[in-house]
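WARN retry 2 of 3 for item q-0093 after timeout on previous attempt; input resubmitted unchanged.
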Amino acid sequence: MTHAPGGYFNELMVNRQLLIWAIATRRQLERWELLVAANLRAQNVGASPFPDAFIWEAATEHHFLQIAARNLIRAIDLATPTVPIEPTIRAELIEGRNLHEHWVDNLPVFRVTPRAEQPKHRSGKAFAARNPGRGPYWWLGWTNTEGPMILPNVPAQAVHELVDRVEATVIARDSGLRRFIPPRQLSPWLGDEYGKDRWWPRDATGAS
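OK item q-0093 returned
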């Protein structure tokens, strides 16, 4: 570990922090993706409408997802050996959390099109340089090739895979922590067996 073995963040505590934030991130992914899928289903003719209240619910779940993911990155940074994260995914999750946390400063920058002013702080500048025409405040993002999108360069699937790696790493170090991992919810997406349609939502009952 990066801290002395007798310090507070010893191996046991780092494993705990890794796993608790992996679980929190997975839970937020599950909560948010259900809403993204419901919004897509609502676009079909004859489908149930997407209630206005769900729009704001998606916004808050999306915000909390980024908080959980940022804390997961903090836990990863304590661990030795660490868990690999693709650099753009890492950078954009950190930036996204910061831009959502400091929304008073950043909404007027990123929610105005065309962009009338430039961000003043490091996270905003880095995000804007990578995404000159896009912002972080879209909470129902989805593409048919990458599925639900947390941020312009962060597919939800990439974060699921990161959580998988963290969980596997922790359990390999301390199998006794497995009892704290809750069952996964059924994915709202059709899945790999559906090929190019893998990112189309299942029906509301979970059937394909």
